[in-house]
Automatic annotation (TrEMBL):
PANTHER family: TUMOR NECROSIS FACTOR FAMILY MEMBER, TUMOR NECROSIS FACTOR LIGAND SUPERFAMILY MEMBER 14. This is Tumor necrosis factor ligand superfamily member 14-like. Residues 127-260 form the THD domain. The chain crosses the membrane at residues 43-65. Residues 76-133 are annotated as: Disordered. It comes from Astyanax mexicanus. Gene3D superfamilies: 2.60.120.40.
Amino acid sequence: MADRGLPYPTVFSVDSCIGVPPLPPKPGQRMAQRQRRKVTETILFLLVSMALIGILVEACFLYYLQSHKQDVKDKEFHHLKSKQPDTPDTPQTDAQKGDKRIDEPVMPQQPTVRPTRRPTFRRPSKSVAHLQRASWPDKDGLITWSDEEDHIHELTLTNGKLVVPKEGYYYIYSKLTFKADGGTFNHRVMKATHLYPDPIELLRYHYVGGQKPNLTSSVRNSYLGGVFHLFRKEGVFVQAKDGRVLLQSAGENFFGMFMV
């Protein structure tokens, strides 16, 4: 064909990898996008404005508190200053006035002695008793105690018995210093109750020894202690038999109880 002077036919190339061209926007879509953008910008502006206003209010509040605090301090200072006596500029003593009379003796000022307060003790919150002044056991072995200088709270001492005011658990203890002249000694803590006619034994110490009497080495100690449940108006007392209780000092023999 070229030889004959005829033009070449038009050749179209098609690229199969190119996607579909985008469609033109729908009518009114651009206007909706502009409105949403305007609403978003308005909301952001309002939020930023509110944050700035909050910071400004907080700064004003802090300034007011600081100025008010300073005014209070100034008022207190002037109030205290007004109470203080005015110090004159003129000297008050002879030495400050330039007086040459220095031969007069100066008496020292006596210190003021303030009376001391007696210490106050808190009352215990529960029933408690501690007895130290014991007497000789009677024929039944009952030891009576004196409550003149001992500590008793809410408990009652009646004929050597500590009577409880209310039901509960109590720790009961007793200590005796004794001398087993006959070779034996019995130390017991008993309970008197209206439920039984005879006393009930709570604690017991029984000593059996073969030492000779009237020797210093035969002096011994007996301690009893334990927790027991007691009813109202029940009494607890101490018995000592078959020996000799030594009344040496208040710390050698004692008897007490307290509510747990």
